[in-house]
Amino acid sequence: MFQYAAALALAKKHNTHVEFDLTLLNDKTPYSDKVYRTFELGVFNLKINLAEEKIIQYYNPERGSIFKRIKNKITKAIQRPIVYIEKTHRFDEDFFLLPDNSCIVGAFQSEKYFLAIADSVKRAFEFAVAFPKNILELADRIENCNSVCIHVRRGDYVTNNLYRDLLGAMSAEYYMQAFGFVTGVAENAEIFIFSDDIEWCKSNLFFKQAVTYVGDVLAESNYQAELFLMSKCRHFVISNSTFGWWGAWLSSCEGKLVVAPKKWFKNGSKDGEDIVPKNWISI
């Protein structure tokens, strides 16, 4: 979602469109600690243009047969295609100096890339799927109470060596401390917990307020529905997860309060300062 939002901002500057290269996403070559993802932007109200193979090869001359690779390298040497590779997790203001027909590679995890077109991004990320009755009823309930979303990401942050060392799961102390900031504006709050480890939440997080474990209501994993329901909440405590980040960012509730981890990365070599918007609370 961050990648598309950043690309959309650059495309709007040049009055053009975004094309997707799914090569890396579709690569299921097994290696240690790889977590496979699927392309799911099709659930949103945005147009998906897949790049043609010849376009992909133009920017990546190492693909294809020996003949094609030689041809692509010659083409690249003559035409000099622009391939921008993100160097750090910090916002790069030079990003918007890129010309049309650029290939961008990176995570682009900062709203600074697309804040100027925030309304367009929110329209693009409106859901184009029909949710069942129980989801819509829960959404209505969330919208009509002083709802607080608590997003707890564990899963691969605990079981996967790469993500455990890079990001790591937030502690129970963090969630309870973060919720303390919300209670000042969330009188008579009703808590909605979104997590890939509901049992851990039940055993480690204790609130005086009413709590709904959304995973129990859904009965089965449904990330589309969870993001949709998160976006309906009024206030947020999120983990160091871009899934929770987007749930909070997409919320249109006036006066919303979002609390996020100040130290996004467990690995101190990574700088996550530009990930959390300035109008959110970082602890």
Account of the 3D structure:
- By secondary structure, the protein is an alpha/beta fold.
- It folds into 2 domains: 2-122, no CATH class; 132-282, 3-Layer(aba) Sandwich (Rossmann fold), CATH 3.40.50.
- Helix content is 37%, strand content 11%.
- It has 13 helices and 8 strands.
- The chain has helices at 2-13, 23-26, 53-59, 66-79, 118-124, 133-143, 156-159, 161-166, 172-182, 198-204, 214-218, 223-230, 242-249, and strands at 82-85, 102-105, 147-152, 190-195, 210-213, 235-237, 258-260, 281-282.
- It has a 6-stranded parallel β-sheet with strand order 5-4-3-6-7-8, sandwiched between helices. It has a two-stranded parallel ribbon with strand order 1-2.
- Strand 4 (190-195), helix 10 and strand 5 form a beta-alpha-beta unit.
- Helix 12 crosses helix 13 (242-249).
- The model is unreliable at 74-79 (pLDDT under 50).
SSE-based structural type: alpha/beta
- Lateral strand order in the biggest sheet: 5-4-3-6-7-8
Beta-strand portion reads: 5-15%
Radius of gyration: 21 Å
- Could you state the order of secondary-structure elements as H and E? HHHHEEHHEHHHEHEHHEHEE
CATH class division of the largest domain: Alpha Beta
Helix content: 25-40%
- Uncertain residue ranges: 74-79
- Main sheet specs: 6 strands, parallel
What is the CATH T-level topology of the largest domain?
Rossmann fold
As an assembly, this protein is: single chain
* Global shape: globular
Compute the separation of the termini in Å: 25 Å
- Count of separate structural domains: 2
Determine the number of helices (DSSP H or I, runs of at least 4 residues).
13
The count of strands amounts to 8
User: Which second-level CATH architecture of the largest domain applies?
Assistant: 3-Layer(aba) Sandwich
